[in-house]
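[step 3/7] fold_predict: job queued, chain A
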Amino acid sequence: MGKLYDSITFELTTWIQQQHVFFVATAPLSQDGHVNTSPKGLDCLRVLGPHHVAFLDVTGSGSETIAHLRENSRIVLMFCAFTGPPKIVRLHGKGSVITRTAPDWKDWEGIFPTQAAPRSVISVNVTRISDSCGYGVPAMEFKQDRDIFHRWVATKGADTLRAYRKEKNASSIDGLPSLTEGEA
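[step 4/7] structure written:
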């Protein structure tokens, strides 16, 4: 049933772009550390090549992905078909973090639609591409993207968002460093 791919093909790229949500999983090296899974939406992912994807990471209440990638770079992205034929695709790889203070930030940010409160870009060099049946994934219809995040950001100013990131995004729940004060 499952299949390994040598690269992210045109067909896989098309299918990935049709998904409204995907999941990102990372973990610290410590056996006592917490594994993290985060849902992502808002048209934030781009396939950049046969072994390269990136997504725009917006301000949030935690920063596990950034902390874990900075510690060990391991990441997996999972996409599920909630409409159409059942299918799951996983992209395993090594991720890196590009923050708003990086010299090439504008180049990276320009790849994505304008988004409120961007925090970083997560770039993934994909080392394993696989699919599986997805028979256990429920069929659900997409209704709409939520506007709550955009409304929340609209109530904040740049200084308030920076203070929020300094407070909430300096370290992971396990105490690993995430955003530096200058990156917040």
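[step 5/7] annotate
The chain has five helices and eight strands.
The mean pLDDT is 96.
exit 0
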